[in-house]
From TrEMBL:
Keywords: Signal. Pfam families: DUF3688. Residues 1-23 form the signal peptide. The gene is alp606. InterPro entries: Phage_1-C74_Orf1. This is Alp606.
Length: 295
């Protein structure tokens, strides 16, 4: 049986496509002063809050190839055609469509489609389609984002604003993320964000500085941290084995309580454990010093 691969694409009947450039405005954070030799690795952090409706929506990256198999799950794609100011959101189910190419939505002469392709290098397409923009090759110009629904039953399709941002999740992340800084102590170390911005893996000593007046409590590995005016400093050092720490932040915003989901901080760097021989040398040295003082 031939294996099929599903590719999410936008197609147009025109011979050429203008490629308007869109820029996502980065979230502004109130950052604390950082030592000259440290490295800010906050970029990529995208906090999730418990109890917010979007918790069952998982933001996807094209490199994970979520459409490489049929899973019968619901998805939403935020996209536009020729008009870069006309963002659209479309929900669809990843099922075994009978058509080789399933059109999901359209905007003028642009079509959003799932295309099933076999093991051959070049996938089939109707001759009338001149240009195809594949999700995995788009730089954010035509595809804003793609989400998968991990809840039960058919979800309600969210609403978006004119910029393609979902608005009825009803959350302003600025109030939650402002003043939170993750920084490597040494500039030559590396850090990687995963799990949609909720898991940080580092290979060196790391400082977590929180300076946010909306923060009410901070928990590190289940232990409540001492706070003063919404400020907390957490220092994460390498241990003898890789360790995953849990950071939870609780907020009070205009009288409403919020709690973040677990923020994983993985310390991948390791230090060599002190050997028994080294410990015995230290003990012997102490004993020798004490004996010499008694003489």
């Amino acid at each position: 049986m031939k294996k099929l691969l599903s590719i999410l694409t936008i197609s147009t009947l025109t011979a050429s496509i203008p490629a308007p450039l869109l820029a996502n405005t980065p979230l502004t954070r109130n950052k604390r002063d950082v030592e000259a030799n440290s490295k800010d690795v906050t970029n990529g952090f995208d906090i999730r809050i418990k109890g917010i409706e979007y918790k069952n929506w998982e933001k996807l990256e094209a490199v994970t190839k979520p459409f490489s198999k049929i899973d019968d799950k619901w998805y939403i794609a935020i996209w536009h055609g020729k008009d870069s100011n006309n963002w659209q959101i479309k929900s669809f189910q990843n099922i075994n469509y009978s058509d080789r190419r399933k059109v999901l939505d359209s905007q003028g002469n642009y079509e959003l489609a799932l295309t099933r392709v076999g093991t051959i290098k070049h996938y089939w397409q109707p001759r009338s389609i001149r240009d195809i923009i594949s999700w995995n090759k788009d730089n954010g110009t035509y595809f804003k984002s793609v989400y998968r629904w991990n809840g039960v039953n058919k979800p309600i399709t969210p609403k978006i604003d004119n910029n393609g941002n979902i608005i009825n999740w009803n959350i302003d992340k600025t109030k939650f993320q402002q003043g939170i800084l993750f920084a490597l102590v040494e500039n030559n170390k590396t850090a990687t964000w995963s799990n949609a911005g909720m898991r940080l893996t580092v290979d060196g000593e790391t400082n977590i500085n929180i300076n946010n007046s909306n923060v009410e409590e901070v928990y590190w590995d289940g232990a409540k941290q001492n706070m003063l005016g919404g400020k907390v400093n957490i220092n994460v050092k390498p241990e003898t084995s890789e360790k995953t720490h849990k950071l939870v932040i609780k907020y009070d915003i205009n009288g409403t309580k919020y709690t973040s989901e677990d923020i994983d901080v993985v310390m991948a760097a390791k230090i060599e454990p002190t050997t028994i021989v080294e410990q015995q040398k230290v003990i012997s040295l102490i004993i020798t010093i004490k004996l010499s003082r008694q003489k």
